[in-house]
Amino acid sequence: MSDLLIMTPGPTEVSEEVRRAMSQKITNPDLDPDFFDFYLDVSSKLQQVIKTKNDVIIMSGEGILGLESACASLIEPGDKVLVLDNGIFGRGFADFADLYGAEVTKWEFPYNKEIDTNELAEKLAAENDFKFATFVHCETPTGIINNIGEITKLLNEHNILSVVDSVSAIGGVPIEVDEWGIDIILGGSQKCLSVPPGLTFMSVSDAAWDAVNNRETPVRGYYTNLQLWQNWYEEKYFPYTQAISDIYALNAALDKWLEDKEIFVRHNKIAEAVRKAITESNLNLFAENGHSDTVTAIEIPDSINYQELNQLMTESHNVMIAASLGEFEDKLIRIGHMGENCYEEKLYRTLKAFDHSLRELGFNLNVELHKVFINKMD
Ligand SMILES: *Cc1c(COP(=O)(O)O)cnc(C)c1O
């Protein structure tokens, strides 16, 4: 299993530089003044990735902590929250909002397409008295990417704050937080930045800070309370001890990311070549439009059992890809081509393993997936 290639849409492969960074000698992050400057420096690197001057907070915990913290800190019982739902994570936001006592309005859009912004504009013209709206940038279970800039533009026209889950897109596709007026955008360490799971990060606009601070009732949570992150640098105080080794890893990954001037071009080129391999074949992509450049979801042919396919791929071909979640669990398989996974040789090996496994299970592919892929790359 040691050379198993992890091509799942997170956690992604972790580079040697990042693994080495995790093993560096630690200091006491609550007491060492240098750590506060180091943390500030890492946040400023994240600001460069998402193009913002807004505060960036890095929290110790998986991506879900970020999602829950935004809801816990913004919502007071009875607040009206709009949940835009075109996928499993989008729908999941409603549960968090509900948990913290919001009055949730959920607008559902088809799960195999990006959110239709014309339809959204019409709905918002008719109803818009929401404190904030949530949506997902990249729906990882289905490989759909939503147009953040157009959605936040509409929300901003109606003075609705935006909370965007970009856990599986930050670092893989261009994001302009300030230009697009995004209030809170959430990321995770283990997706496109290719750091082990353990950190979540977010940028918070002035308007979002105002909403978090001007509450009549206390935030129902401590670990999830963003108010405690207001003046950490000035006061040299963190609400809890920071996961210093994880932050060393994030720092190393960000240095690598910032040096890599081809990162978005590579994500786009590889994603297009993966999609081309599928569309040229007798397999089907799940998404009708809004194909993400970070993950591709492919329909599993009726004659194929996912468990058998997965077992063959991991045990005979040393490549791990992922099933989907929820209602798509045994219907879709997903290849993550984000971060450290996003290299031509890794996708070639993955598609070859996928191609051979399908044939071994008796599915008659009409093209060789890895060859279509590599032709498109050349
Ligand atoms: C990975 C991911 C998260 C974090 O959730 P886990 O399932 O715990 O990894 C949140 N949102 C999106 C869109 C993700 O892809």
TrEMBL record:
Positions with a binding annotation for substrate: R334
InterPro entries according to UniProt: Aminotrans_V_dom, Aminotrans_V_PyrdxlP_BS, PyrdxlP-dep_Trfase, PyrdxlP-dep_Trfase_major, PyrdxlP-dep_Trfase_small, SP_NH2Trfase/AEP_transaminase
Keyword Methyltransferase recorded: no
GO molecular-function terms, A-Z: alanine-glyoxylate transaminase activity; L-serine-pyruvate transaminase activity
Keywords assigned by UniProt, alphabetized: Aminotransferase, Pyridoxal phosphate, Transferase
Domain Aminotransferase class V positions: 35-323
Cofactor(s), by name: pyridoxal 5'-phosphate
Record-level GO BP terms: glycine biosynthetic process, by transamination of glyoxylate
Pfam families referenced in this protein's UniProt entry, alphabetically: Aminotran_5
Residues bearing the modification N6-(pyridoxal phosphate)lysine: K191
Similarity comment: Belongs to the class-V pyridoxal-phosphate-dependent aminotransferase family.
Name of the featured protein: Aspartate aminotransferase
